[in-house]
Prior knowledge:
CATH architecture of the largest domain: Orthogonal Bundle
Domain Peptidoglycan hydrolase PcsB coiled-coil: 99-170
Shape: elongated
Pfam family, one: CC_PcsB
CATH class of the largest domain: Mainly Alpha
Number of domains: 2
Domain M23ase beta-sheet core: 276-372
Largest sheet: 10 strands, antiparallel
CATH topology of the largest domain: Helix Hairpins
Coiled coil: 27-110, 157-236
Number of helices: 3
Helix content: 55-70%
Signal peptide: 1-24
Amino acid sequence: MKKEKILSLLIALAIFSNVGFAYAGDVDSLKEKQKEVKSELKETKDKLADKEGEMSAVKKEIEKLDTEINEASKRIKEVEERISKVLGDIDKTEEELVEAQKNIDIKNDTLNARLRVMYKNGNASYLEVLFGAESFTDLLSRLDLVQRIADQDVELLRYMQEQRDIIEDKKEDLERQKKLLDHQQNEVKIQKDKLKLANRSKQNQMNKLKKEHSKLEKLEDQLNNEANKVTNDIKKLQSPTKEYVGGVYKWPVPGKYRVSSPFGYRIHPIFGTRKMHTGIDISYGGQYGPTVVAANSGTVIFAGWKNGYGNTVMVDHGGQMVTLYAHNQSLLVSVGQNVNAGQAIARGGSSGNSTGPHLHFEVRKNGQYVNPLSYLK
């Protein structure tokens, strides 16, 4: 009987010992897996940050090309307007030339008719005019009149020919201007076509980067899910921590209460992809430097640059509750520092992947993102 009890005790010890070893082995294995997943997740986040940097640079190049294309279009329009004006001036000048030539032809016809009459009648007409004078004074007057009429005819003809020459010179000048403008127009069109080609190339590059970015985001989501699962598995094996009992949180930016982007899925303002927004964005109304305060008392567990978050502060409030404050202009605390609720921890800004000055505020419970508005008063 005694031997049986000893045997039962040894079996029980062996079982519990194996359970203990199995428990320790499971936790160690999970922690090792957690370490690997976190390492892979960090590598993926770094790749995402690099890809986002490339996308931001390409976006700026596309915007620059768009501006240059618009400027080229404006220049083409200006040249076209000038060409239209020159063509109008050429049409007007051609009409003036036709009118000038018509006047010259009329005057020529008049002179030719007079010459034909003089040829047929000899100098009789002029002699009749002269011999019809009643006195010597009248004779001189008539002689002067005949001479002046002849001189005026010649002068008028010469003047009209000069005007025609001036108009022809003007037309030639306008045609030269049009030729020059045509050349300028062709040059600008060629430049615009080159810019469009470069723009298409950049758009293709951007589309490729977006696809790569989307794949990395999916990988990041998978790794986050895996990391969360491993964390939960470890928590199940380890002794549970008590729930947070610290009450509601203070508003992290006193005086700035407009939430410009709520918690939940949204279209990313920079990358144009549908993505979970893990916190809320509190707008500064275009202002830089407003005071950011700790939402509750706790210990600073991170203070520095955090990829797309920019200058970031993370505060551990105990009970697996952590708050995060991102896109700051400058930080006022350091890791390990204890802070009180309402204590200044940063100056607001627009660092990291940000479209303007605002605070990205997160609340994490047991490592999971939760809606901050559920905890803020």
